[in-house]
Every structure is written in C-alpha cells, then in structure tokens.
Write a structure and sequence with these properties.
By secondary structure, the chain is α/β, with parallel strands linked by helices. It contains 14 helices and 15 strands. A hairpin with a 5-residue loop joins β14 and β15.
C-alpha cells in the first residue's frame, strides 16, 4: 500500500512538473480558481484593429493593453459568420451543426452545455451582460448564469461604455468569491451611430450616422454598394470601434482599481467581423471570407508576458481553455483541444471550420425590412425554440489554415485562396488545382478532405470530427 501511495505521489509530481514546464515554455502561468471574464464583441473584425495592422487609430487602448500584457492570436477563426451560431460555438465548444443552430428561430437545445454552466457547477458565481438579439434568454443563452442583464432594443445597441460600467458595478459588489462574467457588447453592429469625438479622432469634422436602411438599400442593388458608400460605411464603423475602445479602457482601469487584474483571466473575442465591399457586400456579414470570419482573440493572464500566436485557432476552443487556465477539469462535452495546444503548435497542423446557412439574397431581403421589424417578430411570428429536426438545406462551409482559405458554397462551387500571396482573397486558384505546385496541393488537401469537397455537404461527413 505504501509503495502504491509513493508511486502515486511520484506520478502526480511528474504531471504537475510537466504542466508547469509547458506553461513556462509558452509564457503562460495558470491562474487556479481565478475570476474569469469573457468579453464578446459583436461584429468586430480583426483587420480593423491596430494590433492586426490596421492603419486608422481605431483601438489605441486595446492595442496598448494587448501588446503589454496579452496573448494575441493572429489567426482566430469564428465558426459562423453571424451572431447566433457563432456564440453557440464560442460558449458550448461545439460546431453549430452539432446542435442544428442555423436560423433566427433556433435556440440552444437542452443537451448544449455552456461554459457558464461548467463554471457554476464548480462553485463560481455567474453573471451576464448582453445587448442585441440572439444572445438572450429567449435563445437559451441565460443557461448557467445566476443572473442575466441586457436589452434587445436597437436603441440600446450603442452600449459602450455603459455596459462596461454596469459590469464594473457588479464586480465591485461580487468579488468575495470567484466569478465568471460575460460581457457581450453590440456597440459596433449596425446601425453605426458613433460619437462626434470618435469621428473627429479619425479626421471627420461633420458627424454622421449610418442606418440599417442605408446599408440594405446599397446591398439590394444589382451592382451592389458603390466604393463611396463602402468608404462611408467603413469610416462610421471604425469610429464605432473607437467608442468601444474607450469602454474597454474604462473596464480595464476599473478592474485594476478594484484590485482584480492580478486574480482574473480575461478573454476578449468577437463572434464575427464585417465586410465593406471586399467581396460584393458592405455593412453585412454575409460572406465566409477573412474580413468576416477572422476575429480578434486576446487572452490576458495575470503575471504573463505578452506573446503572439500564428497558428490557426477556433473560437470554440475558448471553453476548455478557460477551464484549463483556471485549474479545472475539462467537461467531456467540450472539445479537448484548447488554445494552449494552438500555442504549442509549430507545424500548422490545425485548421478551422466555419459554417453558414446564410445566402446573400435571403439575408439582404431580411435586412431590407430593417432589424426593428424583424425584432418585433421575435416571440410572435418567429418562434424561438430548439430545432427538432436535422437541417436539410445546403449550407456554405469554409476550412481555414494558416496559409489557405477554402470555401464551398451552397451551390457546390469551390473557392481556394492562397493567403500567403493573396491575403485579400481575390484570386480563386481552385480551377487550376492540377497545375498548382505539389507543396501547395499538399497543404490545401487536408482542407478539401475536411469539408468533403466533391460530394454533397452533409453533417454526417464531418460531425464526428470534434
């Protein structure tokens, strides 16, 4: 018996030593039983932030914070190009197709366990602040939260810095035991109503706003938005990011003044980005290209040196990562792959999967009615409940590696982009597949295999690949 006990102690010490070595090698320090804050920003594209090379000063505060104390993921990919299915992946660690969450009337099914539930099960207090449609109790996203605050009304979507101030008031009164807090801001989503100060910081002397009707009208034309419209929409969006950035500064300053930063893990991420004419639409996230599916992802850990990660990361890796960093066991329902695995990867073996039920023409029609009218239907014409049947329509799918972007559209057409030479995704090289260099085909073939290229897209082709 003594021999067994001694062996157990030796093995335990070896495992702990190995884990400690892994963290040290990757500039990470675990934060056992620390508070956890998940900041989810709706519609924030990575390409519009300074930390990802953007030229306009949209995010000076976030840039400074991330570069001084954050682990920045350069190739974080969302699992859907719009809010509902993307947050399904972000909070459950599963792909949207695994839960049949595709349309505005879909809700989380009962078997979809969230990170909030996992944290609550382990004794954490849980709280959510969320504005905008979809990430609301009606869709099942209050699951696991002790309390849930938010608004679905469009008048409340410009919520920075208010939502961060509300969250700070909550942390001030609830820091006696570990907490899990989610803050979901709708600030940079349409309509764009930036402050005069933020527009001025970007060189705009006369303030202006962009409403939903402006964008839907431009997208509904056969020719699409003009370059002038794209530029006007994009500038207002950038100013909205500047307003968000001020709220982020207030939030981090507040956490510091409350003495929480040294015992809190903060994950900042977006559910998807936004398009401004890159691929035919503007002000609406309808495509599967990088301006929409590549999102910011920064992890802030106490006493951890800043770092950058080039390997591809899926945002569905956030739940198991939170558990691992907080020193908690990973739920069996969650993906076993964490962001720590991505950090350790030096081979580009990881890829990201993104799915969408959206078709441009359908969404333009919906947006054309304005969100006000659509939201008025929620709970009445649109019935929000878990889907009982398999999704039987074709859907678009993207597989993304560090070097290639592969898209299979609903009509079966395939696009392949070499991101090394074509980061804007303008030259589809798939028609020349047979003539591509052998090394390029070797790198891209796993993406083709992953989406089942050449056969109808069905969940069964890759549902088992967690």
């Amino acid at each position: 018996m003594k021999t067994r006990s001694l062996l157990f102690l030796i093995l335990t010490a070896a495992v702990l030593t190995g884990v400690s070595w892994f963290y040290r090698q990757n500039n990470l320090l675990p934060c056992a039983r620390c508070n956890v804050i998940l900041i989810s920003v709706d519609t924030l594209s990575a390409k519009h932030l300074g930390i990802y090379g953007y030229s306009r000063p949209t995010s000076p505060n976030l840039d400074s914070l991330a570069q001084s104390s954050g682990v920045i993921f350069d190739n974080a990919i969302a699992q859907a190009p719009w809010t509902l299915p993307s947050h399904t992946a972000m909070l459950t660690s599963r792909y949207p197709f695994e839960f049949n969450v595709w349309a505005v009337q879909d809700a989380l099914p009962e078997n979809a366990k969230t990170i909030a539930q996992a944290m609550k099960d382990r004794g954490y207090q849980t709280k959510a602040f969320s504005n905008g449609p979809f990430i609301q109790p009606e869709w099942g996203f209050d699951r696991g939260f002790d309390s849930f605050s938010g608004s679905i009304k469009p008048d409340d979507w410009q919520d920075s810095p208010k939502i961060f101030e509300e969250a700070l008031a909550w942390t001030k009164s609830n820091s006696t035991r570990p907490f899990f807090l989610m803050v979901h801001s709708f600030q940079v989503h349409l309509p764009y109503r930036p402050s005069a100060e933020s527009l001025g910081a970007l060189g705009v002397e006369t303030p202006y706003q962009v409403e939903l009707g402006d964008v839907s009208q431009a997208n509904s034309r056969v020719s699409g938005p003009t370059k002038e419209e794209d530029a006007r929409f994009e500038l207002a969006y950038d100013a909205e990011i500047r307003d968000l950035d001020q709220g982020i500064k207030i939030f981090f300053d507040g956490l510091k003044s409350q003495g929480l930063l040294d015992k809190t893990i903060v994950v900042l991420v977006a559910d998807h980005g936004e398009a401004f004419g890159e691929h035919g639409v503007s002000g609406d996230h309808l495509t599967m290209n990088d301006e929409v599916i590549r999102v910011p992802l920064v992890v802030f850990l106490p006493h951890t040196a800043p770092a950058r990660v080039k390997s591809v990361a899926e945002i569905r890796a956030i739940p198991p990562t939170i558990l691992r960093l907080a020193g908690l066991p990973i739920e069996k329902q969650f993906s076993s792959r964490t962001l720590l695995d991505v950090i350790a990867d030096k081979t580009d073996k990881f890829s990201a999967l993104t799915d969408s039920s959206l078709q441009k023409e359908e969404v333009v029609k919906i947006v054309g009615t304005s969100y006000d009218k659509v939201i008025a239907m929620f709970g009445t014409v649109i019935k929000v409940e878990p889907r009982q049947s398999e999704w039987d329509k074709p859907y678009a799918v993207s597989a993304r590696s560090q070097y290639f972007q592969l898209i299979k559209n609903t009509d079966g057409q395939i696009e392949l982009y070499d991101l090394r030479s074509d980061p804007s995704e303008e030259n589809n090289v798939y028609p020349q597949w047979a003539n591509l260099p052998a090394e390029d085909r070797r790198l891209a073939l796993p993406l083709l295999n992953r989406i089942g290229a050449g056969v109808p897209i069905q969940c069964g082709l890759y549902c088992a690949k967690k």
